[in-house]
Automatic annotation (TrEMBL), chain A:
Subcellular location: Cell membrane
Organism phylogeny: Bacteria, Pseudomonadati, Atribacterota, Atribacteria, Atribacterales
GO MF term list: transmembrane transporter activity
Annotated function: Part of the ABC transporter complex LsrABCD involved in autoinducer 2 (AI-2) import. Probably responsible for the translocation of the substrate across the membrane.
Protein name: Autoinducer 2 import system permease protein LsrD
Quaternary structure note: The complex is composed of two ATP-binding proteins (LsrA), two transmembrane proteins (LsrC and LsrD) and a solute-binding protein (LsrB).
Superkingdom per UniProt: Bacteria
Organism: Candidatus Caldatribacterium californiense
Keywords for the protein's UniProt record, in alphabetical order: Cell inner membrane, Cell membrane, Membrane, Transmembrane, Transmembrane helix, Transport
Topology of this chain in the membrane: Multi-pass membrane protein
Transmembrane segments: 9-30, 42-60, 90-108, 115-138, 158-181, 208-231, 289-308
GO annotation, cellular component aspect: plasma membrane
TrEMBL record, chain B:
UniProt name for this protein: Sugar ABC transporter ATP-binding protein
PROSITE patterns according to UniProt: ABC_TRANSPORTER_1, ABC_TRANSPORTER_2
Signal peptide range: none
SMART domains: AAA
GO terms of molecular function: ATP binding; ATP hydrolysis activity
Length: 317, 253, 352
């Protein structure tokens, strides 16, 4: 039994173990990899995707897809930038951005719970529609040169630490705590694990799911603020294809697509691992044509580990 | 049996689905401390009757009295809040498979404790685990740890956890729909034993729907036979043979 | 005798029909334009140039937007065929996937033209596009001159190339032209990474490459959308951004010339940009389509000739017979901060 417990511990923390191995290997193989500057770079690269992954993970844990995250990000960036460019105050602009995200989330949650749409279909509608709205608002134009204060969340520094990294840490700690220590967090997991059981047991599934989607929208919109600041610009094409990266990170971190299983801390591992891989590929300047294949292999590897772990805890006759 | 011992009374219940008459003028009662077996062939109306009791849909006509007061169930939630706890088909379907035993027993009714002087409320894990252990030991279920997920236990153990979960909520009436249908022989025996204990020692009124006359005879105080939406017989298992009950179920003399 | 109401209705309906046929008899031309995705600034400008020229010539245009979906573009074109337009012009989102629609168009006898990209199968009367290899080559030559200037005439240095989507023809051609020029100089090292036409990816590549190569001399990008990412990336690693002419400046140049790009060049954040005459493709192709509908094959320019028009940004343009069909390769040209304010550049034209 001891051995089995140990094996389970290893599998439970597989992403972080892979990261340790990966970092150790590259400390020797990749020039300039094992430097403080580069670690900072990896974390900066992780931050925007990382914030989106929190929202996506919340949805996945509750047993729902959210395809709309990247569109929400783009809409938020565009709306906020338009607002500051048109002379609105920065707090007001940020308020509009976060509001837009929560509205998209509310729409998703309502389509799913009140209209009975499948989450994939519902968020596919917003995924297309919200991107379209972002494109429509600026007619495809890129807005650039934003006020420095607006860019604080994306490009500012607190002491020597970039704000992005601080945000990443704070948000992960916060949402990890919410998921593990609060009743709401427990309900998110339970709804994902067995929605029917949760409903029979008196959990207000509608409220949980709508809240989860609103949080996802809020976080995506916030990621839009960070990205606009990071790139000192806003384009309706921001975040194109990001939803797949977010899902990859969550899956690599062991979050089940069927809901109820996984932890945010591991999803963060998935984000850092993906960012480190592309960082190493950039540092080596390897042929650009193979990057996608390597990513797919990583996901396959993570999913295999995950099913091994499941088998280990399941009851056997 | 005293007349004030009646806990549940269903009077003149009728229900049709389009042209199909599922229930016709059914009168059904349940006393305190009683285990009743509801038997009948397919389409006899057993599950319709239970679903009305569980608040899944309302009857077309008829009244339901609980402890002498008339009640109207608009939703499963209503019935649940009145203390009628229904477990459909496979009991483990009301469990979250990847959550531990304690989390399952407290599902939807988690205990929280204040943090930072009541500013926030967080889950009181230790407390829930302790209470889960005590509920389990009260019904005589042996499970090695309340921290292991449901998937790591056998079918019978899962059913036991589901029953413990029902028990913690101190239901007025426990309705079990085919509780042993999905189990092996040995586990079936264990679960039946547990149900009997709940009924006899804990004194929880139970309605069991079952196909299996064998187990019905083993644990119930009274058998109610349904056929074509009507009650065609009521008897005590000590006074009739299985053959007689089968006669009632299929009809004809 | 009183006429029944039906009679008056019939008269009314007949009147409407008559006015319709009069309108049709005027033979007003209707063109269909299928855009791959108008969210893109460049695509919007190509479309705008086309529509403006049509308006000027009194031609009606139906514009459809495929929103980056190859399938939707096929449906769009089928709709245009059903609508009975006289000619269709498209910017293919996917050169292979659009072929099905092109063949349907051929069957329906509607002449098909493309801008910017060709198609894999089916008959296209004419394609107008910028010479992407040449654009890459111009960027390469400018980069070479800048490096030689920095190292007292010696051709050496380290250059980062931020590509588009690997495998896509535009990206491959822009890379090809650039490499053709610079590979003759072995002391110039080129680091090529794919940015997938994504600003954030451009940021990451800039940051990572500058970390691995603090001595980087220049950055060549395949599209203007990378500029904000490059500028912020340099800031993130170096702490500050040295503008053109300031000490420590990293040469930044690329291809496109959209409004944001030209502004960056004018603000001396980037050295310069190779501009394509996106807004003027329409001015070039629409008269040819009209002429083709009147006179057929003989209206088309002959391969090997050079089209010249005083003052037009597409001029001079080469007419080339390729495996894909007849193509016109328009002029591309380099602008630095002195020329970036020119109101005739497509990126500087008002959108109204």
């Amino acid at each position: 039994m001891r051995k089995r417990e140990f094996l389970k511990f290893l599998l439970d923390n597989s992403v972080w173990i892979i990261i340790v191995v990966f970092f150790t290997l590259n400390a020797f193989l990749t020039p300039k990899f094992f430097t403080l500057l580069n670690f900072r770079n990896i974390l900066i690269h992780s931050s925007i995707l990382g914030i989106v992954v929190i929202g996506e993970s919340l949805c996945l844990l509750s047993g729902h897809f959210d395809l709309s995250v990247e569109s929400t990000l783009a809409l938020s960036a565009v709306l906020g930038s338009m607002a500051v460019k048109n002379g609105l105050s920065i707090p007001l602009a940020i308020g509009i951005m976060l509001m837009s995200g929560m509205l998209v989330g509310f729409a998703n949650g309502t389509l799913i719970r009140k209209l009975g749409l499948n989450a994939f279909v519902a968020t596919l509608i917003t995924y297309i529609g919200i991107r379209g709205t972002a494109l429509g608002i600026v007619e495809g134009k890129t807005i650039w040169n934003l006020p420095a204060a607006f860019c604080f969340f994306g490009a500012g520094n607190i002491g020597i630490l970039p704000v992005q990294i601080v945000l990443l840490a704070v948000l992960y700690l916060l949402f990890h705590a919410v998921l593990i220590y609060t009743k709401f967090g427990r309900h998110v997991y339970l709804v994902g694990d067995n929605q029917l059981a949760a409903r029979i047991s008196g959990i207000n599934v509608d409220r949980v799911v709508i809240t989860v989607f609103m949080l996802s929208g809020l976080l995506s919109a916030f990621a839009g603020l960070v990205m606009a600041g990071r790139l000192n610009s806003a384009s309706p094409l921001f975040g194109t294809g990001m939803v797949f990266e977010a899902m990859s990170a969550a899956i690599i971190g062991g979050i089940s697509l069927r809901g109820g299983i996984g932890s945010l801390f591991m999803a963060l591992g998935g984000v850092v691992l993906l960012s480190s891989i592309s960082n190493v590929l950039n540092l080596h300047a390897v042929s650009p044509y193979w990057i996608q294949t390597i990513r797919a292999l990583m996901i396959l590897f993570a999913v295999t580990l995950d099913s091994l772990k499941r088998r280990l805890v399941r009851y056997e006759e | 049996m005293k007349s004030d011992g009646i806990l549940l009374k269903m009077e003149g219940i009728c229900k049709s689905f389009g042209e199909v008459r599922a229930l016709e003028n059914v009168h059904f009662t349940l006393s305190h401390h009683e285990i009743v077996g509801l038997v009948g062939g397919n389409g006899a109306g057993k599950s319709t009757l239970i679903k009305i009791l569980a608040g899944v849909f309302p009857p077309d006509r008829g009244r339901i009295y609980l402890e002498g007061r008339e009640v109207h169930f608009k939703s499963p939630r209503d019935a649940y809040e009145q203390g009628i706890y229904t477990v459909h088909q496979k009991m483990e379907e009301i469990l979250a498979p990847h959550h531990d035993v304690a989390a399952n027993i407290f599902m939807g009714e988690e205990i929280t404790k204040p943090l930072f002087g009541g500013l926030l409320r967080v889950l009181a894990r230790r407390e829930m685990e302790k209470e889960a252990e005590s509920v389990l030991s009260r019904v005589g279920i042996t499970i090695d740890s309340v921290r292991r997920p449901i998937v790591s236990y056998s079918g019978g153990q899962r059913q036991a956890v589901a029953l413990a979960k029902a028990l913690r909520k101190k239901p007025k009436i426990l309705v079990l729909d085919e509780p042993t249908a999905a189990l092996g022989v040995k586990e079936k025996f264990q679960v039946l034993h547990l149900i009997k204990r709940l009924g006899k020692e804990e004194g929880i009124p139970i309605i069991i729907v079952s196909h299996n006359l064998e187990e019905v005879f083993e644990i119930v105080d009274r058998i109610v036979v349904l056929r074509n939406g009507q009650i065609v017989g009521e008897c005590s298992p000590s006074l009739v043979t299985k053959e007689q009950v089968v006669q009632m179920i299929v009809g004809g003399e | 005798m009183r006429r029944s109401p039906l009679f008056w209705w019939l008269v009314f309906a007949g009147g409407i029909l008559l006015s319709f046929s009069v309108a049709l008899a005027q033979e007003k031309l209707i063109f269909g334009y299928s855009a791959p995705g108008l969210g893109d600034e460049g695509q919007w400008n190509i479309q705008k140039g086309f529509v403006d020229k049509c308006k000027e010539l009194g031609i009606e245009v139906i514009v459809t937007d495929a929103q980056q979906s190859a399938e939707k573009q096929n449906n769009d074109i089928e709709t245009l065929i059903a609508r009975g337009v006289h000619a269709i012009c498209a910017v293919p989102h996917d050169s292979a996937a659009i072929s099905i629609a092109v063949q349907k168009c051929n069957e329906a006898g509607i002449p098909f033209f493309t801008i910017d990209r060709g198609v894999t199968a089916g008959n296209v009367v004419l394609t107008v596009k910028a010479d992407n290899v040449k654009a890459g080559a111009i960027a390469g030559e400018v980069m070479l001159r800048l490096l030689q200037g920095k190292y007292n005439g010696v051709a050496k240095g380290k250059v980062l190339e931020i590509r588009g989507q690997p495998g896509q023809d535009v990206a491959e051609q822009r890379a090809q032209g650039f490499h053709q020029v610079l590979e003759k100089y072995p002391d110039i090292q080129i680091i090529s990474l794919p940015g997938y036409w994504n600003t954030e990816e451009g940021f990451k590549i800039t940051v990572d490459t500058l970390t691995a190569n603090p001595d980087l001399d220049g950055i060549y990008y395949h599209a203007d959308l990378y500029i904000p990412g490059i500028v912020e990336g340099v800031k993130a690693v170096k702490g500050e951004f040295a503008k053109v002419g300031e000490p420590g400046h990293i040469f930044i140049l690329g291809i496109d010339g959209n409004p944001a790009g030209l502004d960056q060049v004018e603000a001396k954040l980037a050295d310069g940009v190779v501009v394509q005459p996106l807004r003027d493709y329409g001015a070039l192709i629409v008269p040819i389509i009209v002429d083709y509908l009147k006179r057929g094959e003989e209206a088309l320019p002959k391969p090997g000739t050079v089209l010249v028009e005083e003052g037009a940004s597409w001029s001079p343009a080469m007419v080339v017979q390729t495996a894909a069909g007849l193509e016109i390769w328009t002029n591309v040209f380099y602008v630095d901060y002195l020329g970036a304010g020119d109101p005739n550049l497509w990126g500087n034209k008002p959108r109204e």
